[in-house]
Amino acid sequence: MSISGTAVALPSIGRDLDTSGSPLNWVVAGYNLAFAAMTLIAGSTADRIGRRRVFVLSSLVFAAGFLGTALSPVIIVADIARIVSGVGGAGIMAAGGAILASGYDGAARNRAFALMGTMAGVGIAIGPTLSGLLISATGWRASFAIFTVIGLLVALGGTRARESRATGADRTDWAGGILFVAALTLLMFALLEAPSLGWAHPAILFCGIAGLVVLVVFGVVQRRSASPVLSPALVANRGFMGWSLATLTTSIGFLGVLVFLPTYLQAAADLSPAAAGATMLLLTAPVLVMPMTAVALVNRGVPARALILAALLLVVGGNLWLATLESDNAVMTVVAPLVLIGVGMGASFGITDGQAMALVHADAVGTAAGFLNTLRGAAEALVIAAYSASLVGLLSSRLGETTRAAEVGAGRLTAGAEAVELDAFTWSWQLTQVGVGLLCLVLSIVVAALIRGRGAAARRAT
């Protein structure tokens, strides 16, 4: 909910704090970067020091970050507070998934993870609508302040969970954790700042190359570590990696639309934040019902592999269909593709985690849950950065001015030039969607190869 609701708030934040471009996009990207970077660390830490303990502490950090965002006087404070919230969100998801995996087996585990997917779907579904209503009624700060209360309630509820941890837990792999955070941060900075600084700028080239090098070093360190944050055995597990890549693919196909379409609808169709949030229900509402529907089919014998491949095709088709988006009649144009993407994402929520966790040893469920959510978070962070870079880069090539392009990408059109800028905005949207759709198609083919013949094994393991 904190991700989907924030997307609707971006234009209001930009106007209130007088910002656009990458500083504004870091409100969303900073949360996702912290979430992606810290989930893996939080998962392995939860296995070692206690899953309930990490869950409760993370909920408090989550709440504190949202309070800081609501009170932010300038954009840099909002960005830092969002990063704090992302760290808390990472611990909630990693430790929460580990608590479920350690507490349930078989069909009950499938249902538990499907329920977790359903609740994520509830948050995704009501996030844009609730935030839009709150922004229209009281301003964007109130839409963030409510999460402080939610975070405290989550922490209170977490105290009721049963504590669990891995047997024979070793010390935390601080070197691996630091390297992973550094790699993602460098890559994210390069992607977000490239449109304004230029892809050939020394800082961008350095961060991009350094990020890839640090990522390789991270892999080497993990292979030699006695207690790695990312176990090489997980990466070597073909079935687990296939199901993990499936969740990565659906996240890529879902999140760019979720974050950036509300801004386009407000600029192109002149919708209010509340109306834009309501329109996004076409994308998010299917995520409410599809997780439990998908897991019910799997528990009744329908092959999970066939279901996930169908879900991936829906996500690919919906993203490619959105390449036909036009400013005229924009709302009607997005109806069918948004439903397709939402159904595909919801179905994957219901089955990917359960199928993947069924292939993991009980002592590694925290690390595995952290890895799954790290992939989601990394996909979300990098998709937001790459999507923003693509939109602003294409707008810059069309409008000839980076500052103006960033403002148009944030939904702030120049008086007297609305038609030209909106045409450029639409064109950049169309090309970006083609790229996202083709990337999801390639990843779906890889998923099909990795999970081939693994459906029966997964069912036997559960």
Entry keywords:
2 domains, disordered C terminus, 462 residues, 19 helices, Growth Hormone, Chain: A
Characterise this structure.
The protein is mainly α and 462 residues long. It folds into two domains: 394 residues, Growth Hormone, Chain: A (Up-down Bundle); 56 residues. Helices cover 83% and strands 0% of the residues. The protein has 19 helices and no strands. The protein is globular. 60% of the residues are buried. The C terminus is likely disordered.
Secondary-structure blueprint:
Elements: H1 2-16, H2 21-49, H3 51-70, H4 75-103, H5 106-138, H6 140-158, H7 174-197, H8 202-224, H9 232-236, H10 238-268, H11 273-279, H12 281-284, H13 286-299, H14 304-321, H15 330-357, H16 365-399, H17 402-409, H18 418-450, H19 455-461
Helix pairs in contact: 1-2, 1-5, 1-6, 1-10, 2-3, 2-4, 2-7, 2-16, 3-4, 3-6, 4-5, 4-16, 5-6, 5-11, 5-13, 5-15, 7-8, 7-16, 10-11, 10-14, 10-15, 10-16, 10-18, 13-15, 14-15, 14-18, 16-17, 16-18
